[in-house]
Amino acid sequence: MTNPDVPLYILIVLIVLILAVSVMLYFAFKQTRQAFHERQVAEFRGEFNVGIEGYALIADSFFNTMVDRDDVKALFAMGITAKSAAEKNKYRTRLYNYLEDGYRHIQQYDFTQLHFHEKDNRSYLRFHRPKTFGDDLTGVRQSVMTVNQTHRYVRGFEAGRTFSGFRYVYPLEYRGEHLGSVEIGISMKSILNLMKRMFGRDTLFVVSRSLLDNREGKSATSGHIPWKGDSDYMLDRSVNAKSMFQSRLGDDGAKKIREALKRHLNTVNGFAIDLAGEGIYASLVAIPIQNFKKQTVAFVIAEEAAPDANAYHLSFTSIATVLWILIFTLVVFTFYYRYSQRKIAQLAERDGLTTVYNRAAFMRRLQEEFSRFQRYKKPFTLIILDIDHFKKVNDRFGHLVGDRVLKQFCLIVLNQIREIDVVGRYGGEEFFVLLPDSTLEAGHMVANRIRSKVASANWPEVKTVTVSAGFAQVNAQHATIEQLIESADRLLYIAKESGRNQVRGPDLN
């Protein structure tokens, strides 16, 4: 006889199983969301750091090539030691005229600040406001105070009297004496716009209201608008005058944001939270911005699409749907994360000026090809190119013209090689070309073709550019890549000594 309670038992078991699965899914979701948020923050932080490092390379290049020079520092030294105001103004004007073209150049990269400070923290020359100088920045500009006290380079976000942005501040030393410091500054708008161009991410920049209130001569609302997310912070109007979810953010969402900002005020890593309800279906990802006193004074914030957390918490009516949403989210995130990492890795291995491989990346490729030769005896050829008299180009026409010559030279080289060939900047005006699966004759042909194209190219600013080349094919006598490089370099030296604008290889020496 069939037990009538069996269907009830089955139903109870099914209910218990569904409840158990639902509870497990809920806690699994909580753990997944936490890990997902951590990855969101890491990715967002990585993108932000790419912007910071990218502009740091430009600032470092400008400082090293245009500012950290004896002639510039001599003008600065004579100006700050001048006995009279008239004499001081004379040297200040000379310094401005000397660096004006360079300042205009870095403005093309969105830099707005080039500011010299004396060692007592007094402003010496603002290129954006050259008629305003002499004001004491002690107590106002911690970055300037730190550099003048420690004589060490610092960088970071800082609010000044009229400008809030990211500052790269360098000490200036001349003949063993500390003269003061120089700042190269860029707005947060430019950094976040770079992130938008590179990664397609919209961002907000919110600044502590108390920080704005403490700026001399500026009201809290100057250049900023109220942020519905937290009344203690103001939206930077120049970055995004319209908040991404400003009009859709309800009281519950605003409360959640306020609590998260207070909870993470002292963290350096950032945080992410889910916002749901009143039209919002998103995660808020935030990175804290600290000043030079290690105080969090602002946040960079992004909105990202996210699965609806309420659906997991309240219903769990369709396990399959929940699983598919989770799987889809993880797949999308994985692909997007890998894509972002590839972009970051690509930036890390490229020369910032010419976009060819930098030295470290090229040497890795060369080592890989050399290992392949050792295993499979696949031949390859290495060409070393050196632009003739390039120092004279820099000395006569300036480093900016020299930079343009290097970029045009690399374009010529890239147009003369195959897709599988590799070009790298070894240093200065010296470049390496790797030709996989190539004969010695092919190396000679490619090197000579590059030499000919460079010599016949139109160089509007310098009229004539030539290049010398040495090339060598790997063989059993090369125990290391250093020996191969030495072989090609020796032939390059012969080409230079023979009159330049020549190619030398094993069969031509």
Q: Care to give the gist of this entry?
A:
With 509 residues, the chain is an alpha+beta fold.
Task: Determine the oligomeric state from the structure.
Answer: single chain
Give the C-alpha Rg.
30 Å
CATH topology of the domain at 359-504: Alpha-Beta Plaits
* CATH first level of the domain at 359-504: Alpha Beta
Residues in helices, as a percent range: 40-55%
Strand count, sense and barrel status of the largest sheet are: 6 strands, antiparallel
Count of DSSP-assigned helices = 14
Please give the CATH architecture of the domain at 359-504: 2-Layer Sandwich
Q: Could you spell the SSE succession in H and E letters?
A: HHHEEHEEEHEHEEHEEEHHHEHHEEHEHE
Please count the beta strands (DSSP E, at least 2 residues each): 16
Shape: flat
The chain-level structural class is alpha+beta
CATH superfamily of the domain at 359-504: Reverse transcriptase/Diguanylate cyclase domain
Ends apart, CA distance between termini: 104 Å
